[in-house]
Design brief:
8 helices, globular, 34% helix
């Protein structure tokens, strides 16, 4: 148990250090912007599929938690659907990028902002123990689960923060075998000279480099408490960029993107 706790802490510390050091640079990379656009489009088209309750007059505000929020792609995509949006990230650099995005969008701070933190909750973090960070209608964790050692603990912690009937959405990489072209990408699903260098820099922050299949995700969510019958898994198998997206001077002339998925589970 003690060794497992140290492994969790070591990976979390490595992830925090990496994104604090490289986040600003990576968030501007064309390949990452391209991937974020594809995920954003898929998320926008999945709003009804998620099955989140709809707004109604006199009902409580609609709440979204963007966990491991990065610069806020999920929050900005779903902004029009929710009254209150909160982001949480282990990286202070990511939190700052998120809050800059929120400010530039003209969204009031009370409606949307991010804070530094992680789940399960460290004892010293009292802010995330307040009511403000519970009873969410939707929680989304995008392209972060494979950076987490204690995946069961995180998913169980997110389950606790949903209202009854609330939904968790997981977006992450699928196994290469799910791809139409069986491309073998690196971290974030790309291959090529630049991305080989990036993979070498980031691999020490990855707990699962192989992606998550349907049954693995179903088991993870079921074990975290989510209703088994609520599980669904949408695969995006062939997400190769178009030729016009390829930038030769950035040394990724020949690359393709790993398949990714959007999975969901509901709290009873």
């Amino acid at each position: 148990m003690e060794n497992s706790q140290h492994a969790n802490e070591d990976l979390a510390a490595a992830t925090r250090k990496f994104w604090n050091s490289h986040g600003r640079e990576l968030y501007k990379q064309e390949w990452l912007l391209d991937m974020s656009k594809k995920i954003s489009d898929a998320l926008s088209n999945s709003v009804q599929w998620m099955g989140v309750r709809s707004r109604s007059e006199g009902s409580s505000p609609m709440k979204l938690l963007d966990y491991a929020c990065g610069p806020g792609m999920v929050s900005s995509t779903l902004l029009g659907q929710f009254d209150i949006i909160r982001g949480i990230d282990i990286s202070e650099t990511s939190v700052a990028s998120y809050n800059e995005m929120a400010q530039q969008s003209g969204t009031p701070f009370e409606q949307m902002h991010a804070v530094h933190g992680s789940i399960p909750l460290p004892l010293e973090n009292t802010l995330l123990a307040t009511e403000e960070y519970f009873n969410f209608d939707l929680i989304v964790i995008s392209m972060a689960l494979h950076h987490i050692e204690d995946q069961a603990g995180v998913l169980s912690g997110l389950y606790e923060r949903l209202r009854s009937g609330g939904v968790l959405v997981v977006i992450d990489l699928a196994p290469d075998a799910y791809s139409h072209n069986h491309a073998h990408g690196g971290e974030w699903g790309y291959q090529g000279d630049y991305h080989a260098q990036h993979k070498a820099r980031v691999q020490h922050t990855i707990s699962n480099p192989d992606g998550y299949g349907v049954e693995e995700m179903k088991d993870l969510l079921s074990n975290a408490g989510f209703v088994p019958g609520s599980f669904d898994y949408q695969l995006y198998p062939n997400m190769s960029p178009h030729a016009s997206d390829i930038v030769e001077h950035d040394n990724y002339k020949n690359f393709s993107m790993k398949p990714f998925f959007i999975a969901k589970g509901a709290k009873e």
